[in-house]
Every structure is written in C-alpha cells, then in structure tokens.
Write a structure and sequence with these properties.
Blueprint lengths: L5 H6 L4 E5 L2 E4 L4 E4 L2 H4 L8 H13 L11 H13 L4 E7 L2 H18 L7 E5 L8 H6 L16 E4 L5 H4 L15 H9 L4 E6 L15 H12 L2 E5 L13 H5 L5 E4 L11 E6 H9 L19 H16 L2 H17 L7 E7 L2 E6 L8 H13 L1 E2 L1 E3 L2 E4 L7 H17 L2
Parallel strand pairs: 3-13, 5-6, 5-7, 7-8, 8-9
Antiparallel strand pairs: 1-2, 2-3, 4-10, 9-10, 11-12, 12-15, 14-15
Helix pairs in contact: 3-12, 4-12, 13-15, 14-15
C-alpha cells in the first residue's frame, strides 16, 4: 500500500466501502466526514452521478483508443476546454495519467525545448526544499522531502533546490500570504551566479506546497520568481496538481496569484478523482518550437507519451467534472466560503500542541509540537482517533493537512473543528 505503514495497517485495517457528497462509509457502516477531498482530488464531492454516467456511456461507445498515431474526439475536446480555462497563452495540452507523470513530462519538455533552441547547456532543474512533485525519478530529484529519497541514493545529478519559505519565527499563524519571505525568491539569482546564466533549464514550484503541510507563498514571492526566470531565459513550471480546479477559489493558482508560468502540471481535480488522469499545459511558444524544429512532416516532435494518455474514459470523466465545476459555480463558491474556513481553522490556535496554523483558499495546515524522540507520532495518533470518530484528515510529519471538497457547508466545517478541538485536547 502506497505511503502506508503496511505492518500497522494489517493489524489495524481502515477500510472505506462507499462515498457520497461529503462523506465516506467505513466497512462497519459508519459515515466519515471527508476533510481532505479524498487525497486533495474530489473537489466536487463524492458520488457525482453525471461523472459516473459519462464514464459508462463512453465505455459503451469507445472504451480505448491508441494515443500513438491516432486520436479520438474527447481528447481534443478536453484539450480545447482546458486551454480556454487557463490564463495567457497556456493553450496546448499533453495528457498523462497522474501528477507524477505530469511532472516528469514537464521536466522532459523543458530539457528538450532548450535543446531544440540550441541551448543544450541548460540542463539544471531547480526545485525547492519541502517541495513535492510526485514519485518518479525526475519529480523526486527536484522534490525537497528528504525521506522520500533516503533509500534511493543520488537521482538526477544536475539539479538544485531553492530554500523553502516557511519560518515560524517570522510567519507563524499567517492568514493567507505571509508578509515575510518574498526575498527568498532571490535565491534563484544566486543559483544563476553559481551555475552560470546559460545552465538552468527550469524552475518547478508548487504555488502552495501541499503535501509538505500547506506552505503558503509569501507576498511577492511567485511574482519575483517569474521576473527572474524572464531575465535569464529559465522556464517556470507551476505544479498545480493540488491547487488546480478551484482549491484556492479560482480555476488555477496562477489565476489567483496573477502569474502566468511557462508550464502547468495538472491531475487530481481534473476528473474529480473519478479516473486516473493528468495533463501538462504549455505556452504556445514552447509548443511551436517543437513543431518548427522537428524536420519532416512525419517526424515525431516529442518522443514521449503513455499507453493511456488521453484515455477515452478519463476524458469523459474530466469533461463531466468540468461541467459540474462550471454549472454549480464551485470555484466561486470556494472563494465565498474561504473566509469562514480561515476563521474556523484559526480558532484552533491556543489548543494543546498547536505550534502554527496557515491557510489559503480551502487549504489549511495545523502544525503540532512533535513528541520527544517520536517525530510524526502525535499527528498520526490524532489521524487514527479522528478516523474512529468519523473524520478523515491527512497528516504529513507532525502537520495535519486539511482540504475539504468545494461543496463543504459551514456546519460541516464546524463539525471538523469540533472534532479536532476534542482530539487535540485529548492528545498525549
């Protein structure tokens, strides 16, 4: 089982058998309130009939279509739909099957793009400390969570990491973007000086770092990264696998922050979690570089792809999910309820063991004091007790991460905070 203490799970299994709206059902028949959108992905809530019906209808019509040298209408329809939603000239899409594959694809596109432009010296990929970009070799290389790489030794050699932006001495209990920390983007200028201005291919960051515990960018930070990348010809990649599709109250984080990157990686909420799918959006100039430099008309412009790229069933699920987001106004709804969410999560300040709380949109991280010599134990114990009490949360280290579906109601937010208050007071 992925990212699971397998031995403990076998002795203490936790099994979910059904889901609807804001709730899962456990194998004992009890309902459990979903405070994490499954795994940051079920943005429109569970059991959406329109998505299930779209998948079933597609399976009856065209269950599979080869993505190599052939196509099917739904893939082009979805690409056009997403291109219209994305800002600026992020108007071409490449489909994958997960966030990890989206990151891997974006990194390969970045390296190949510079090769095609005659700048083969641009080989260095820059990530950020505490960043998470999936579990493939490229994503792990530019990721900044040491425990994910501890058993693997060196991965991609030509990479570097920016410092993360969270310093509790300066930005603890921030509501939205912290005032302190924007200057940390200037570390990219220092990397340019260290490595040389013609060596860095791309910088990849999560606009809001999710899996490491909801680290919100400081004011001006993302804008400064964009400025530095423009000056030095570096591609800027936003990993929006978590923040995409309404999590911050806008379609994408790049909309929320007013920064157009060169590529955006997508997954999770793309299909509302109902089918595996990811995508990479690229700016028109990057796409055109591949088209113009490929040689003959029959030459393959990008030697990359997956058997299930743009799978018909996943496309059907994604299109149905986009219809729900649009027709129910869920992105605007998330923006409307975000202030109530902020007030609710910060009401936990002052409870036992709470060191910090940070939030943005419908995301929040609650950082706890670690137990002596038992890192992550306190948060995991709260996770286990919450599951028994009817609340699904996510923990990463000693941080409780929350990201409810965009359909969440105020009374459900209140219930989450009531349970967390009780659990924090009981925690060892």
């Amino acid at each position: 089982m992925p990212f699971t203490a397998n031995r403990y799970f076998k002795d203490h299994p936790r099994v979910l058998v059904a889901a609807e709206g804001m709730y899962y059902t456990r194998d004992d028949g009890e309902r459990i309130l979903d405070a994490v959108s499954g795994l940051w992905c079920v943005n429109a809530g569970h059991g959406r009939a329109a998505i299930a019906e779209a998948i079933a209808a597609q399976a009856k019509t065209l269950d599979y279509s080869p993505a190599f040298q052939a196509g099917h209408p739904r893939a082009f329809e979805l690409a056009e739909r997403l291109a219209a939603m994305l800002p600026g000239d992020l108007d071409h899409l490449f489909f994958t099957n997960s966030g990890s594959e989206s990151v891997e694809t974006a990194l390969k596109i970045a390296l190949a793009y510079h090769q095609r432009r005659g700048e083969a010296s641009r080989r260095i990929l820059v990530g950020r400390e505490r960043g998470y970009h999936g579990v493939n070799f490229g994503g792990l290389s530019v990721g900044g969570i040491p425990g994910h790489k501890a058993d693997l030794g060196p991965l991609l050699p030509e990479m570097d990491l920016l410092p993360h932006t969270h310093d509790p001495d300066h930005n603890a209990f921030s509501k939205g973007e912290p005032e302190w920390g924007g200057h940390l983007a200037d570390a990219l200028e220092e990397m340019v000086t260290k490595h040389g201005s013609q060596t860095i291919a791309a910088v990849i960051v999560e606009p809001v770092a999710g899996s490491t515990g909801v680290l919100v960018p400081p004011q001006g930070y993302l804008q400064r990264l964009r400025e530095i990348c423009d000056i030095h010809g570096i591609l800027l990649i936003f990993d929006e696998v978590i923040t995409g599709f309404g999590r911050l109250g806008a379609a994408f984080a790049c909309d929320h922050f007013g920064v157009v990157p060169d590529m955006v990686t997508l997954a999770k909420g793309l299909t509302n979690g109902a089918a595996p799918m990811g995508a990479v959006a690229v700016r028109g100039g990057i796409y055109q570089t591949f088209m113009d430099s490929a040689g003959s008309d029959t030459a393959i412009e990008l030697a990359h792809g997956y058997t299930y790229s743009g799978h018909p069933l996943s496309c059907a699920a994604a299109l149905a999910a986009q219809d729900i987001y649009r027709d129910e106004g869920l992105f605007a709804r998330a923006a409307e309820i975000a202030p109530y969410w902020e007030q609710a999560v910060h009401s936990l300040k002052g409870l036992p063991h709470v060191m910090d709380i940070r939030n943005m949109g419908l995301m929040a991280g609650i950082e706890l004091e670690p137990m002596a010599d038992r890192p992550a134990a306190r948060a995991f114990e709260i996770y286990l007790r919450a599951f028994e009490e009817g609340l699904l949360i996510r923990t990463t280290g000693d941080i409780i991460a929350l990201s409810p579906p965009l359909i969440v109601e105020r009374q459900e937010i209140d219930r989450m905070m009531e349970l967390l208050t009780s659990l924090l007071k009981q925690a060892a």
